[in-house]
Structures are given as structure tokens and as C-alpha cells.
Amino acid sequence: MVDRRQFLQAGALAAGMAALPGVQARVxxxxxxxxxxxxxxxxxxxxxxxxxxxGSALDAVEAGARWAESELCNPTVGHCxxxxxxxxxxxxxxxxxxxxxxxxxxxxxxxxxxxxxxRKVMENSPHVLLVGEGAQQFAVQQGFERRRLLTPQAEAAWxxxxxxxxxxxxxxxxxxxxxxxxxxHDTIGMLALDAxxxxxxxxxxxxxxxxxxxRVGDSPIIGAGLYVDNEVGAATASGVGEEMIRNAASFLVVxxxxxxxxxxxxxxxxxxxxxxKRPEASRTLQVCFLAMNKQGEVGAYALHRGFVYAVCxxxxxxxxxxxxxxxxxxxx
Length: 332
Ligand code: SD4
Fold this sequence. Notes:
The chain is an alpha+beta fold.
């Protein structure tokens, strides 16, 4: 047994060793964080600050997702998101630890950090998913600030949209994140592996712009937009969430890895499944999967060309990769 003095000595030694560059690199070892789209690069860097200090994968993905929710001002994640067709901005988020614990919120209004509320659902409630008013009430009880989030730009974009009222999700809208345009979907899905070999993931979004009031996408649905299992690996998704829900897609990707597929093969097979189920719809909407197995191998696959994902580890913190896709023409 380790007594208190030995414990304190060991802690002090570890802290001192971590300050040495060589040891720091070994501590970070196989740690890695990956996330969807171009804005995954700075989001990963926010998560990396946690991993580089030997922090947990769970803390890392929360930090990365929080970065996207507050620092990114685009029409689709967090506080700058576009509203639904009634002019209400509602946010969805989930978080999952590789040990199976998870929490999520959906249709959350006027609370700036849905991913942290999702974590509180996981840690401080007996439930997994809270929605709408109940989610907001829980957030306020947990000490979260409540404030109006809809920006003047998002409100102006909505008023513009009202002229046509056309709901037509655009492929790869994430890569054209200019405030006030008609971009209508966007999500950050993030997966991390920490130095202890533990996995976690988070997913946060304002969902599809101009959605029906009350619509919930895949991002807060455990197994659809996010799934993590320490025995195997983790997966997350971006794109039109109805397709992920129909196929329990992130769970599917993890289960395919369990059967021996690499992350890239598993993502590809899940995309094939989406196409088989709805071949016609698949031509006009985007679906993207990103996965990492417990060895830290990463893979992705998309329906349409244009999906990119960011990878960050001790060697490199700004790696942005193109995902392969089924349809290769530039349809966006
Ligand atoms: C949703 N999957 O609400 C989200 C949106 C998204 O890239 O991922 N856009 O359906």
C-alpha cells in the first residue's frame, strides 16, 4: 500500500518529470484528438492543452467542444448559430466517456455551453438526455448562465430566409461559414484518446438551420452522432442527422471496428449503408463519419467530396486531412 508521504512524493516527482521536455513527450505518448471540419484544428488545440498535461480524454473533448461553442462565430455551432424556422436558436450536444457514461441535451435555448450541460446531465442526474425547457431548467439549476444567444446576423439571415422558406440542406455548408449567408448545417464532433489509453467524445451543434421547431438531430443522440467504447474505439458524425439516426450510425461504425474493420473501413461501410437505405436522397445530402480506434488509428469517410477532419497529437497540432468519399464530383 502507498502511504500518504509516498503518495505526495510520487506526485511531486511526476510533476517535476512532466516539466522535462523528453518526459513530457512520453507522457503525451499516444494521446490524440481528432475532430470534424476545418475549425477542428483550433478546437483540437484547445483540447490538446488538456491532453498535453496528462489530462483526461473527457476533459479534453469538453474543452475542445467549448472552444467551438464560444470562440467560433459561424452560423451553425453554438452562440452564432442560425435559428429554426420560428426564429429560435436551439442547441444540441452530447458527451460520452469510453466507460459507457454519457449525457446529452437537445433543443436547449439560451444556454451558451450545451456540451457542459450534457456533462452535468451525465454526472449530476440519473438520466442521459434532457430536452427543451427541462434541459434549460436543469442548466440554470446547475449554475449555467442564461442569456439570449441569437445574434443580429443570425436574425437577419432568418428574416431573409423567410422570403423563400425553402428548407434545402447544403452539402459541405461547414466550409462556407460566413455569417449571414444561407449555410444550414454544421457540427463539431470530437474524439480523444488520452495518455492512459482512455477514450471520450463530444458533439455539439445548432443543428440544421431553418429546421422545424422541436427538431432534434443526431448530435445529442448517443449511438447516432456519437459513440465511444474503450474496448474498441469511438465514432462521430456530421451532416444531415436524420440519416445518422436512421442507421444508428456512430454505433454502427464502432461495432464494425469491433468486428475487425479499420476506422476508415468502418466509416466507409457505414456510408454504404446510408446509400443503400436511401440511394436517391444520398445524392443531394452530405453525411460524414470520423472514427478512431483504441490504438489511435484514425479514419473517415463521407458521402460527398469536401469533408475534412483535423488530427492533433504530440508530433503535430495542425493536421487537416481530406476525407475520401463515395461521390467524388464537386457537388457543393
Ligand atoms: C444535425 N448533424 O443536426 C447535425 C448537423 C451537422 O454538419 O452535422 N451538420 O443533423
